[in-house]
Amino acid sequence: MARNSSLAGILFVIFIAFCLLNTIFFGDFKIHLQCEQSLPGERYCQLTRTKLYGEVEETFKPGELKRAILDKDIVYDDQGGSTTYYKIMLETQKDKIPFGIRTSWIGDKKERVSQINDFLENTNTTLLDIEEDNLKTLFWSFIIELIGILFMFALIPIAHLCGKLYRGIRAKLVSILNWMNKQQQKAPLSFEKETQE
Fold first, then answer.
1. Which of 29, 41, 69, 87 is the most exposed place for a label (fewest CB within 10 A)?
2. Taking CA 109 as the corner, what is the angle to CA 108 and CA 114, rounded to the nearest 5 degrees?
């Protein structure tokens, strides 16, 4: 029993560590969108993602960047409650690209979506410069996941100790019950001998 709980704990720690490393190595610490309109309808945009291993740039030619969307994702829990997560998505001709990370608070995401869409629709606006800094959110995500790992490492020895304690108490109870059974079996025999005398 203790071995199974230790194995489950170790597997959970590995899963949390994997999520943690994924957040650190592949998460966008900062995301920056710069757009310029040289002629009416000719908008060139550059999306720069700052990751742990460097910057990743993506350029959009005129007409490729269609609009920005505020994506809502509602997650229901077992108790009937729900949490709404918000994320800005950039819709292009090919697909949708996340602009920043998903959070349970809306913050200024509506304003950012409006800024991007106003630039794309308004021919008078010549420049757009928006930056999303996810460093604080990723930092707190890292801390919470790290606490989860440390908590699981603390639980593994406790589960092992509880398993030992359970086996020890069980062995003592079995020995006490065996002793009591032996005493009960001896008692009627000695009583019969006394009545015969």
1. 41
2. 100
